[in-house]
Write a structure and sequence with these properties.
38% of the residues lie in helices and 14% in strands. Strands 10-9-8-5-4-13-12-11 form an eight-stranded parallel β-sheet, covered by helices on one side. A three-stranded antiparallel β-sheet has the order 1-2-3, with no helix packed on it. Strands 6-7 form a two-stranded antiparallel ribbon. Helix 5 crosses helix 7 and helix 7 (180-194) runs parallel beside helix 8. A hairpin with a 2-residue loop joins strand 1 (28-31) and strand 2 (34-37). By secondary structure, it is of the alpha/beta class. It has a single domain (41-424), classed as TIM Barrel (Alpha-Beta Barrel). The protein is built from twelve helices and 15 strands. The longest helix is centred in the C-terminal third of the chain and has 25 residues, at 296-320.
Amino acid sequence: MNKTLLFLLAGILIVFSACQQKHEANFVKVANNGFTLNGKEYSFKGANYWQGMNLGAPQSGDQQRLLRELDEMQELGITNLRILAASEADSAMRYCIHPALQTAPGVYNNDIWQGLDFLLAEMGKREMKAVMVLGNFWTWSGGFPQYLRWAGMGEVPYPQEPPTSWQQFTDYSKQFFSNDSAQEMMKNHIKTIIGRINSITGKAYKDDAVIMAWQLANEPRGYDVPKQLQKWMRATSAYIKSLDSNHLVSLGTEGNTADLVSGVNVLIDNDDSNIDYITMHIWAQNWGWYSPEQSDSVYTEMLQKVNSYWDVHVDAAKKLQKPIVLEEFGIARDGSSFSPDTTTNCRDRFFEFIFNKVDESIKNNGMVRGVNFWSYSGEGRPPHPGEFWKKGDTYLGDPPHELQGWYGVYDKDSTTLAIIKRCCESKF
């Protein structure tokens, strides 16, 4: 081979390598049991802000409020937002966000699409990363129950309407994992959103480094059909990877729950090459471990349960050699009040405990490398605290299927925000 050809080939390789590095720049990757960004170790402190795309909608939303709240979170040091990248609801769907992104199978509300475009564009300006939630086991974004309705499986049994029970609802929602028609509808949405071109930035979502990860669903549970859940998770993760090699994929499960009946298993569920990192949720109050009106002795017992739960997930992460994100945790205001005027002493104490655990893990190269608290309500206030969200109500961090004012952190919760800011500013 002559020298001219060698020089030509070398030049081509250099150009190709430079283009590849430029293409991969700013995408979060997984390496050495942790996250990396542009070749450096990466960890993050963030929030759940699922309502962002609805606030960003130019017609039905409030873009100025969205900009103020993004600025507020940036000032706190928040660099990661877990957001909805899907919502499904026809006019009859209840206990869910309206307006929805998808109003019938394959039929989209362009106003909400533009809201998501706007949110991602503004996050990019603030160097924030997005975890994009693609589905939901619960009704608050339509999710599996809406897909099942569209697939002809009958009306949703809403547990918010007695005498319907939560088991009746979960028996309904888990049918998604064996319903080919419902799964195909969601698969079509996944293909649509990964290939979407942002109307503001001109970037395809699959090429947008603002996005850290695609997440299969919010809290999918298998209950008595865990094999069906696992089959769906593996097939869907592989499908996402076949469409997009730039972004990470996570499940969105709680990891484990407080009992065995939910049909999730942090070790088995995440043992798949297409799952890049483990998700963990800690819901001490929902799981009956503690509520703010109880005694300090119960609080101490709750912390012991949290530590044990944490350790089980860390052990699973070590076996799988994958990092963990604690992407949901929260607790109610003092006395379990729904009023925004109620103090947050119990919440502050719990937030400080959790954030300290996360900081300690990051400091010592532990398996937990990121956290998203639940959730940022910003300027929003419930018009009727302790009642369910209704169409036309302001958007809060509390989802529509739960009583409004339960867990959301407001922009005036100064003591809670100070703890979040102190945690976000921790450098190691």
